[in-house]
Structure prediction request, 151 residues.
Amino acid sequence: MSNDTTQIIDAEAHCDGPCGVYDPASARIAGEAVQSMTKKMLALECPDLNNGGAMAAYLNTMSRYAAIKEDEAQKCKDELLVLWTDFFKPQHLESIPNLHDTFWQAAKLCSACKVEVSAEHAQELMDAIENIHNMFWNVKGRGEISWIRAS
Prediction:
């Protein structure tokens, strides 16, 4: 005779590990790195193509900047997606009707910044992150949290 003592316990969590620690600052830092690397890439001057040593140094520096830019754009996208999918809930759409479009556009900007060297898109990404920063802190009832950049 089986004595089934299994109990069903309802548990609610908004993510896989309900730590409750969210902050758009990590997306901002990654976005700032994207913008910084973009500016550095655009400012880097190509040397005389006949100067092998200078050309090697240029290509090395440019490839390092590009790798950092792409890595940071992906980090930014990952951080934004965590906020979008884990922190924000359906009830937030009532007070922020453009929430989904804002995050979707920001994620698209992260992708654009990975494949392009565009100062315009890097700035648009930073503007989108600032908008998300304001949404986030307003939802938490702390709209007084200032947008402060590290760079």
